[in-house]
Specification:
Number of helices: 16
Shape: globular
CATH superfamily of one domain: ATPase, nucleotide binding domain
Structural class: alpha/beta
Helix content: 25-40%
Strand content: 15-25%
CATH class of one domain: Alpha Beta
CATH topology of one domain: Nucleotidyltransferase, domain 5
CATH architecture of one domain: 2-Layer Sandwich
Strand order of the largest sheet: 15-16-14-13-19-20-21
């Protein structure tokens, strides 16, 4: 009998990937295809859902091609996805009615301020755990309903369906209109306590319930794929950061991970009860295993980290590849007093300021491109420090270890700087693709490929660890300067911009 495997589709912001894992959680096959980014206007960021679906089909086919029995050797498929990105499609034809509006898109800025009214950004936080921000799906749905002729009437009649990228893919694979609690929790439309769509939130935003998917646990068999994948159980869906939390085996209260990619997302497991943030963090569902109670998390979302390195490469041309930034940054011993706050799309956690824009502070004639490279890397570290401080305060605990994953963790200088700035060890797992691993683990649990989370915990292995070595006085002085730089980003956007 041939060996059996679990597949994970990771539908990300920049690309779609498929990874195949064996029973020891080892990667045996990978396929990846990038997709186009569409920028109709400044602040608008869109994707083509049909292009993404074609790419997902291709990467899945390519990944299973190397298996002896092809797709017959795959016992389950898990999906992890870019969150908040919003797709509306025709129920009858399956055709999208508009490009997907991505999580980075800023077009709902005025709308979220209108929705906040006199109560401001926290108007709905008690119900959904989230502040009003351009980041989330609910306002994106409203924008589409308001700007496409006849769409609201069709949505109210159930002719138009909404989904985040997990729902879009589940629909295309199985024909069922579903989402999981982690993705539903990022819409601003799900009640954190009931884990169902909230009528108060729907009414306040004007979103018809008829267009919304059924909310299901993060791991169960949602249905079977058809076509060339006939019989393959689609058995898990988690937003990418929730999948990373699961893949990093953060199963105990206080366990914390941060994924460093285009943006960075720090999540702490807070157990079976949601912790309400008083410090600008998001209260979110971490994951839900079948019929078990949901596990909640606190999240700090940072909009721009890896994207800043890409900007440094593509817009300034000071490096030829992302990996070269470490070499350039090592040409100097420190940042020379220079700080870079990349508020390209405003500031996310813990500030939530859509009026902020990026600044480079502390420039003098002494500053070289090496100092700028240092400042670019340190921006990720200082932004993480802000979120960790807020998280420690909300959770009433102190972070003792950060599990880090994502593409940026290949930068050793960044990881050491992160440990220095946080004052705690930073560990990178052997399998760095933790969102994919988490989706595979979830699907494997749903179909009985793995027995329980303890079996998964035993398979987590540390590949590297960085221990803080920075003097505390130096750390705190740097943090003070960073906060002064952040203050200078505020109130840049005016009403007539």
């Amino acid at each position: 009998m041939s060996e059996r495997y679990v597949a994970a589709v990771d539908q990300g912001t920049a690309s779609s990937r498929c990874l195949i894992f064996d029973e020891r959680s080892r990667i045996v096959s990978v396929s990846q295809i990038e997709h186009s980014h569409i920028y109709p206007r400044p602040g608008y960021v869109e994707h083509d859902p049909e292009e993404i679906w074609r790419n997902v089909q291709k990467v899945l086919a390519q990944a299973v091609e190397s298996l002896d029995g092809g797709v017959r050797d795959v016992v389950g498929l898990g999906i992890t996805n870019q969150r908040e990105t919003t797709v509306l499609w025709d129920r009858a034809t399956g055709a999208p009615v508009h490009n997907a509006i991505t999580w980075q898109d800023m077009r709902t800025d005025h709308l979220v301020r209108e929705l906040g009214g006199s109560e401001g950004t926290d108007r709905f936080r008690d119900r959904c755990g989230l502040p009003l921000a351009t980041y989330f799906s609910g306002p994106k749905i409203v924008w589409l309903l308001d700007h496409i002729d006849g769409l609201r009437e069709r949505a109210e009649a159930g002719e138009v369906l909404f989904g985040t990228m997990d729902s879009w893919l589940i629909w295309k694979f199985t024909g069922r209109h579903l989402t999981d609690v982690t993705n539903a929790g990022r819409t601003m439309l799900m009640n954190l306590e009931t884990l169902d769509w909230d009528d108060v939130l729907l009414d306040a935003m004007g979103v018809p319930r008829a267009m919304l998917p059924e909310i299901r646990p993060s791991m169960e068999v949602y249905g079977e794929a058809g076509g060339d994948l006939a019989g393959l159980p689609v058995a898990a869906a988690l937003g990418d950061q929730h999948a990373a939390l699961f893949g990093q085996t953060c199963f105990d209260t206080g366990d914390t991970k941060c994924t460093y990619g285009t943006g960075s997302f720090l999540l702490m497991n807070t157990g079976a009860e949601p912790v309400r943030s008083a410090n600008g963090l998001l209260t979110t569902v971490g994951y839900k295993v079948g019929d078990e109670p949901a596990t909640y998390a606190l999240e700090g979302s940072i909009a721009v980290t890896g994207a800043l390195v890409q900007w440094f490469r593509d817009k300034l041309g000071l490096i030829g590849s992302a990996s070269e930034i470490e070499t350039l940054a090592r040409t100097v011993d420190d940042n020379g007093g220079c700080y870079f706050v990349p508020a390209f799309s405003g500031l996310f956690a813990p500030h939530w300021r859509s009026d902020a824009r990026g600044v480079i502070a502390g420039l003098t004639g002494y500053i070289s491109k090496g100092h700028l490279a240092r400042a670019v890397l340190e921006a990720t570290c200082w932004q993480t420090r802000e979120v960790v401080d807020a998280m420690n305060s909300d959770a009433g605990t102190t972070l003792t270890l950060l599990k880090a994953d994502g593409g940026m963790t290949a930068n050793n200088l960044l990881m050491q700087s992160l440990a220095d700035v946080l004052g705690v060890p930073v560990a990178r797992p052997l399998v760095a693709e933790t969102p994919s691993l988490g989706a595979a683990h979830a699907a494997g649990l749903a179909v009985g490929f793995w027995t329980d989370v303890e079996e998964l915990r035993a398979q987590w292995h540390k590949a590297a660890e960085w221990i803080p070595s920075m003097d505390e006085a130096v750390r705190e002085r740097g943090y003070r300067k960073w906060r002064k730089a952040v203050a200078r980003t505020m109130e840049w956007v005016d009403d007539d911009d």
